[in-house]
Design a protein that fits this description.
With about 425 residues, the protein is mostly helical. It is about 70% helix and about 0% strand. The chain contains 18 helices and 2 strands. The chain has helices spanning about 1-30, 35-50, 60-80, 95-100, 105-110, 120-145, 165-170, 180-200, 205-225, 225-240, 245-260, 275-280, 290-305, 315-320, 340-350, 350-375, 380-400, 410-435, and strands at about 150-155, 160.
Length: about 425
């Protein structure tokens, strides 16, 4: 009896260690990725050692392991037997190393579910995610107002805060290497800030710092000058505040802009004071060969040449940059590093079947969680928390329609953790039904 109790206690304590390691890793994820990775890896090992092969009972997890096998298979074929002529001089390790952008995230999605199973688990994780974003906010403010230039390195370059000059980044990027990465991180974490804002509306002591964090996140999203991040912020506002309020807000804003621009009494050109991101949106034209249209057309053209096996992970830039892009008369050359669309990127790297499978799984996870949310009649704190997780997942989808922040390691891990939580929303609800 004592022996059984000892083993039960040890097993529980074992998982608690993994959970603490997981939470530390999440907190350090944006600011100290190398150290965060060690904590997350340790927690992942403990998770798999506990669940063993029970995760294979879940069809989605089993499907993902099949996909991982297919990714390795297509990479083997592209590296050994069907090497593209353009890539004949490519180092054989290149494609294999680029798989680290994909396989760890898929494995992480499966393993991290152990730490986000319950609503309480997701609540705690949300606190760590938002707390870990505070240093990101601070770094962005320092860059914006003091133009403090980096990079700042510690532990012999193991941890780097980039702090590039604003004239190079074209917008606030803070500790990230790219303003789009900073915009992604802020916009995907904004739903969690809104959740805590709603939860603490009646508590004056707590509401002020959360209100400040929420305002600063929205302010900095605008000044990253990232159209995708702005789209993510607007979608979050619609989900939490309602589309009627957003329409009313923008209607008033447009009226003010027109009044201040055209009334002779005031005679102020408001356009001069607008953040650059709004000017970039005004200049959009979807009916000509914009750079995004160029890269999408080229990616589709390449995908159709090798629809089932793809070209190999990370090879798009190498193939695209070999010659000038013939899709953009008068033959303007664009230097793209990837396809700027997650589905096209997967199809280019691994073939259409794998891209369709992974996209279907992601949509299914989001749909099931959304179905659970809509079926929940009680609008309690956990209802709003689930809404925040789903809103964050929607922002991930929207941004990856025309960009690929997925290739940043921190964002890569964040997405797999996020979708582990979203998947657990529907799984935990199903388990409650079974218990009842």
């Amino acid at each position: 009896m004592l022996t059984n109790n000892f083993f039960k206690y040890s097993k529980k304590n074992y998982l608690n260690i993994g959970k603490y390691s997981f939470l530390i890793g999440v907190f350090l994820l944006p600011t100290a990725f190398a150290i965060s990775g060690l904590f997350l890896l340790f927690s992942l090992v403990l998770s798999f050692s506990k669940i063993k092969f029970s995760f294979l009972k879940e069809k989605i997890n089993l499907s993902l392991f099949v996909v991982i096998g297919l990714i390795i298979f297509t990479s083997f074929i592209n590296n050994i037997y069907l090497i593209p002529t353009i890539l004949k001089d490519l180092e054989s390790s290149y494609i294999w190393l680029n798989l680290f952008n994909w396989i760890p995230a898929l494995i992480g999605f499966i393993g991290f579910q152990s730490y986000v199973k319950s609503q309480e688990d997701r609540l705690i994780l949300s606190k760590f995610l938002l707390s870990g974003t505070v240093p990101v906010i601070a770094s962005c403010l320092i860059q914006l107002f003091f133009d403090l230039q980096g990079p700042f390195e510690i532990l012999n370059g193991l941890i780097i805060w980039f702090h590039k000059p604003l004239e190079i980044t074209g917008g606030v990027s803070g500790l990230f290497s790219n303003r789009n990465y900073a915009g992604f991180w802020l916009s995907v974490n904004l739903p969690f800030a809104f959740y805590f804002l709603k939860k603490n509306l009646k508590c004056k002591i707590r509401i002020l710092p959360i209100l400040l964090i929420s305002f600063l996140m929205m302010y900095l999203i605008i000044y990253t000058n990232s159209k995708n991040a702005l789209l993510g912020m607007i979608s979050t506002l619609i989900i939490f505040v309602g589309i009627k309020f957003i329409i009313l807000f923008f209607a008033i804003l447009i009226v003010l802009i027109l009044a201040l621009t055209f009334l002779p009494i005031i005679n102020i050109n408001i356009v001069e004071y607008l953040p650059e991101v709004f000017l970039r949106i005004r200049g959009l034209n979807f009916f000509i060969n914009t750079p995004r249209i160029v890269v999408f057309r080229s990616a589709i053209n390449y995908i159709l040449q090798r629809p089932f096996l793809g070209w190999g992970s990370g090879t798009f830039a190498l193939i695209f940059l070999v010659k000038e892009n013939m899709w953009n008369p008068p033959f303007v050359f664009h230097k793209f590093q990837h396809t700027h669309n997650l589905f096209l990127e997967m199809a280019f790297n691994f073939g259409i079947p794998i891209a369709v499978t992974l996209t279907t799984i992601a949509f299914f996870i989001l749909f099931k969680a959304l179905k659970v949310l809509l079926s929940n009649q009680s609008k309690d704190d956990f209802y709003i928390l689930d809404k925040a997780w789903i809103a964050s997942g929607i922002v991930v989808f929207l941004i990856h329609l025309s960009d690929l922040p997925f290739y940043d390691g921190r964002i890569n891990m964040f997405i797999c953790i996020l979708f582990s939580g979203i998947r657990s929303i529907s799984l935990s609800r199903n388990s409650l039904k079974i218990c009842n």
